[in-house]
Amino acid sequence: MTKKEKAAAITKILEKLYPNPPVPLDHKDEYTLLIAVLLSAQCTDIRVNQITPHLFKMADNPYDMVKHSIEEIREIIKPCGLSPAKSKAIFNLSQILIDKHKGKVPRTMEELEELPGVGHKTASVVMIQAYQVPAFPVDTHIHRLIYRWGLSDGSSVTQTERDCKKLFPVEKWIKLHLQIIYFGREYCPARGHHPEKCPVCSKYGVKV
Ligand code: SF4
Questions:
Q1: Which ligand 1 atom is at minimum distance from the Cα of 187?
Q2: Does 58 have pLDDT greater than 60?
Q3: Is 0.70 topped by the overall pTM?
Q4: Fewer CB atoms inside 10 A, N or C side of the chain?
């Protein structure tokens, strides 16, 4: 079986398991999505969803956000971790959105990646979930799964992203990103997995 065939077989399994995967981070527009994704770095989606209602009650757009101090933002987002860096990034990126983008979240990877606190993965998530522009965000979990499935060599997230983009058809990327995340949470934890019960590896073999 080639890697491409395996990728197609896995896609079928994921499609059966998660036909309509919801976006895990609660948001109401591009700005609130961007902030939620930024907050989710090294934090669970559940925790982010507990915190964002408080933050967005205070400010749910860049104009209102910059009326508050970094310290005020930090107080609210503390439970998400890395609050000194994240609060600074939220304040500064809001100011940049106002100064350079008329208060809107930009629609290109380049412009998104220029924003403070927004790396390649965060930008990719915003592109697919806010604008439905195909991208393949790879976090540590997706990186692990793709390696365990033998579809990439595990050398770097950049390589994993490259391989995913080659192996999976572009029209499936947006949905697959979520499907792989849900599969990872349910079946493929970092430690303690059960290949014999696993819907993928019980059929196609496991790498580690
Ligand atoms: S067997 Fe293990 S490595 Fe393979 S998909 Fe299942 S949980 Fe992940």
A1: 7
A2: yes
A3: yes
A4: C
